[in-house]
Structures are given as structure tokens and as C-alpha cells.
Amino acid sequence: MPMRVDFLCGPPVYCDQILCRAGRGGMISRIRTFISKNQMIRPKDKILAGISGGPDSVCLLFVLQMLQKELDFQLMAVHVNHGLRGQEADRDQAFVEKLCREQEIPLRCVSMEVRERARREKLTLEEAGRLCRYEVFAQEAQRYGCNRIAVAHHGDDQAETMLFHLFRGTGLRGLAGMEPKRDRLIRPLLCVERREILEWLREQGLSWCEDSTNQQEAYTRNRIRHSILICAREQINDGAVRHMMGTAEELAEIEHFLEESTQRAARLCVREERNGCFIFEEAFDQLPSLLKGRLVRFCLAEQGDGLKDIERQHIEMVKELFGKHTGSWLCLPGGRRALREYGGVALTREEPGEQQDMGALPLVEIPGSCRTGEKTWIFSLENAQKNQIIPEKTYTKWFDYDKIENYPVIRRRMPGDYLEINREHGRKKLKDYLIDQKVPVRERGRLLLLADGSHIIWIPGMRISEGYKVTEDTRRILKVQIYGGEEDGREDPSDDSGG
Predict the structure, then answer these.
(1) Where are the domains positioned within the chain?
(2) DSSP 3-state assignment of 472?
(3) What is the CATH number of domain 274-349?
(4) Other beta carbons less than 10 A from residue 409's beta carbon
């Protein structure tokens, strides 16, 4: 049943009149202290306030206006019409326009198609509405050069958030609820309960709009607000919300301390890599159990979609991977992978198009050159000289061309690949060789090889097969040089005096 909607009646109420009635104490004083403690507003800030027309946002608008001269900041407002409630939504917008016009506060009204976005992105209306609101806030803040965005979350919202996270499964960070300040977003009313806000508005003779959807228990947060929190106040403790607000503040301080500890641990335990990171086992083992889980979470949060779909069980599975044998791996949400390697665990993410790029390798021309990414391969053919000395170079190699049975190709590894490891033609599987050389699992599939059928001629940067080495019987030499890209500082053909 929709609640009665009040509009401002009679002469407008001005901020100076409110300040006179409100005095210097009570709720306003606590909000002022809360703003100062959390360093929400600095002199010369420009603040964009999100105003829906409901009691919370009306309170926010007047409180900010009252503190404007004292704290020396500029104030403007933005209203988002979600297009979900028909005439009621238009009524709310008209109310906000009238309010801001009377208080001489610059206002922007923006309409969004929330229902269409929810359908398109398969979101609930709550989720789609929230995304639309914050996108509008960010866009309008940028448009008008606002460095602070104020929203009207209060203590009851904090309690709802804590319970919502707890029921769905969360850690310390979720139990800490919403932060008073995060980047440029500020929540000045987070220190007061909603009943205080309503009482203050009535005392000041201020009106507001009521959103009828706030009474619909189809929304999860509404059920928490109208059932659980009311029950807690009436049947357990009237100060339940106030106590939860205090707990959230204390947990936030603990969370901040642990976050700093986690970042220090990351500097000791983690190496950033091209497509993820590597956690060193020895340093990781020295961490307290609590920080181990937080470190894994921190590393995953740095990749792509952050912690989307990452749950507690995934964190535990990665921790357990440190006790598994080398080569063990896990698939994690969002295309992530955890690989047990020599000396630790790698957390990686497959880059878009990576698999396609792996197959797009050039044909070899002898003589000639080709490119793989940022590297250039140069192939040349020359006659062997008597008593010729073959220099030892990492990225320039000489091969007995006549021993190559097929035409040499540049490719990735394949099943059945092998090398000859001695002059007696003893073979070793490429997989076993890479394991012996402790090449990380995630790197093996990206290695570029020079191959003759299944026989690997050369693993650049590592070794060549004994079967293709130049001997006294060699008549023609295939010379292969690689330079450029990641091999910066290694051999350049212009400096190569060998061969």
C-alpha cells in the first residue's frame, strides 16, 4: 500500500531557518564530527549530492547546505529517474526540482531505462538501478568538475548491508559494511539512524516523497528492513541498529589494519607477471593463516573482474594447492587458473585471443626472415668450412641442414615431441625435459619451438637437439638468429660475428 506523499506546502523553508531551529547540537553536530573524522570534505571541494526526493536524501541536502559555509565547499544535486514507477517517478522528479529551485541549489535530472538494462544484462531491477545511478553520478561529477559524490546511506542501511552480507556468506570486509568514504564517494549520514532522520525532518517542518517500492517485500533488503531489523529493535534491543553501526566502525578499522598487512605481505611474497602473478611458497608459508587467505584474495582481486564469483571455497582451494605436487592446477571463476609450480603457485588469466594467436605462426623461408610477435627470426644457409669453430650464443644457433628430414617450422609444442639428448641418439620427451628444467606449466604452451616433424630442433633460450649439431661431416649449415621484443639486450644480428 503506497504511503502518503507530502510536498512542500505554503512558503518554502530556508536553510537559515532550519539552522536557527536546529541549533549547534544533536544530530547535526554528530554528522559534522563524523565528516571531520573521516575527512570527507575539504575546503574548496565541489560536492554532487544524489537526491531521490526520499527523506534520507532530503535530509542529506539540507545538512550539506547547512554546513556549506562553515566547511567552505560548493554544492549541486543530481536526480536519477529510473522510469520504473510511472507517474510516481515523475512526481518525485517534480518534487526534487521544486526543492532545489527554492533552495537555489543547481540540479541535474537524468532519465535512465533501468528495466531495459536489467533485461539486457540479466540483472535484478535493484542491481540495474544501482548501476545506473552510480554511472550517472560519475558522469555528472565529471561533467561539472565535482570531486565528491555524496549519497544518503544511513545507519539502518549499514545494518541491512551487514546482515545481507552475513546471510549470503562473507568475511570481515563484508561485515564491516559500507565505508564512510571510498575514493570520491562520501556517506555523511552513515552515523545516524533513519528514525533520527525522520524525527529531525518533522522537527524542521520539512516534507519528502515516499517510494512505494520501499514497502514491497519482494526485495531482499526490504525484508531485512521491515522484518528482521524491526524484530531486533522491538524484541531484542531497541539500540540494535546503533550497536551494529558501532561494530561496523570497529570492524572497518580492523579491516584497514589487515589490508595494510596484506599489502606488506604481497610485497614480500608476490611477483607480478605479464598475465597474472606468482606467489612464492617459502615466503607464503611464513604468513599467519589469516593473511594467507587474504593474500590470495588480494591477488585474485587484481585480475580482470576483481572478486566477481570468487567465494571462500575458491580461496581455500588455492591455499591447498601449495600442498599439491608440481603441475597440479585449478580452474577458477572468470577464466582464472591457479597452477602449482616450482617454488609456488601462479595465478593467471587467459587473455582474449591468446589461443587464436598461438596458432597464427609464420612459415619459414630459407634464406629469409619472419616475425613472431615482437621477435624477428633470420634464416641463412652457408657452406661448412674445415675446422670451423661454432660460437656459443644463446639466440644464434647453427645446425646441420642436411640432417633435417622435413622442412623446419616454427610452432608450439605438440604431443609426441622429443629431443635427442646425446650422440647415441638417446631421446627424451619434450614434456619431461621441460619438467626437468622447471619450466612453469603456464609457460610451456607458449614456448616457440623450431621443429622437424616431432623432433624438436631448438628450444630458443634453452638448448638444441644433439641430432642437429654441426660435426666434421657437416656440409651445409643452417644459421638461425632471433632478436627483438622481450630479448632486449640479447644478441643482435648486426653484432653477430659468429658463423
Answers:
(1) 15-240, 274-349, 360-495
(2) coil
(3) 3.30.465.60
(4) 15
